[in-house]
Write a structure and sequence with these properties.
Transferase(Phosphotransferase), domain 1, alpha+beta, 3-stranded antiparallel β-sheet, 13 strands, Phosphorylase Kinase, domain 1
Length: 432
Amino acid sequence: MRYAEEILKYNDGGKIVKILEFLIEIKNCGFEMDNAIMIIVRGAISFLEYRNKILPYDIEAAVNIQEDYKILKLVIKLGVTEETLTTRIQTIRAKLEETEQEREEIKVQESPSPSPNQKPNPAQAPAVEKAELPPKFDYSTIQIRNIESGITYKSNIAQFARTHENFQVAVYQAEYMGAAVAVKIYTKLKPEADLTRVYNECRFYQMLGDKADPVHNAFLKYYGTYTQGKCVCLVMEYVESDVMNFLTAFKQQNQKITDIQLLPIFHKLIVSFAEMEELGIYHGDIKPHNMLVDNNWNIKIIDYSISVVSHESLTGGTTSGLHPLQGTAGYMAPEIIDGIKKGDNKAYFKMSRADVFSLGISFLQMLTLDNYTDYNTKENNHLLMGVVAKLQYPWAQNMLQAMLNVDPNSRPKFKDLLAYINNVYTRTFSQT
């Protein structure tokens, strides 16, 4: 601990670079240095967190992006595998990229426009040495598809409406090019309201909507976006009801949903979330209310308003990192609830594994038609597992025991969930 505290007193990162380079040389000579490496690495990571204002602690060292990338590169070269450290490294990397982007924007605003014949001078902009990581796809570059006209509203009464601090959100039924559509309208309530999330949601709907296939996945067809005054309008396929309404209707009629009905829904949802996982998209609020279903049991995923994009090479694509604590009570993973109980706004957790837990709760609700609010805490996980153990179908027991594991590291990825149902799904529907 004393050595880590000493590192925080350095007024620049040059000494840390030299120490890390020395450790790498010693390690390459075959000496066992694991304990020393972990002490220095922890101190170096704390130094970067404080210097870049990720954590509230003042140190003398001024921001130096190039130097910080070099420190990250050396830390990675030392073979750090401890999960808490890799999540912190990813958060630092994201902060450096954000700071770098902000500085570039300021530089562009302040610099005079070059003359048409002036050639750029590479010496004026030295390349920043970044940790050698695979490039990330920038979803903000997706060109939003605009709709110019042709929307006819069925009624001026919203089918759904909610007011947030900065926006009012409402959904209307309409018609577009002869098709029944839903129009989700965000109306700014404050001039300073940030539309970034809204436009990200447009991009998610558009990209996944272009992959929509009612036979193989649960993506909603997306037509496009248009703006009108203070409003941003998202135009998408219309589906009559959400899964929660279906579950309520079955419960009121004292009916159960059979495995013949559920297996195709489970299969489509897992395939869809697995594809989103491969694209680096994580929903963040999976629940029956955010799944639409028609009378033919066609299932669709909706509401990407708090979804995030993350390609994380340092954590094996598991989106470990510092994330906002948000979601819906009764469906949030235990690790998110723990953070909220502590009064935190953000915490380190794996969004991918949190999404798996939320889908597990949703599946359990579809299987039993019961509500499991308060069962999703660490303290009550044994109650949740008790319910799972009584399920009628062995395949569902096995799958949900894995999905609802209190330890996020023990939950499978979405693509691995298919192994739990592929055989029973194929066997069931090859005979029908």
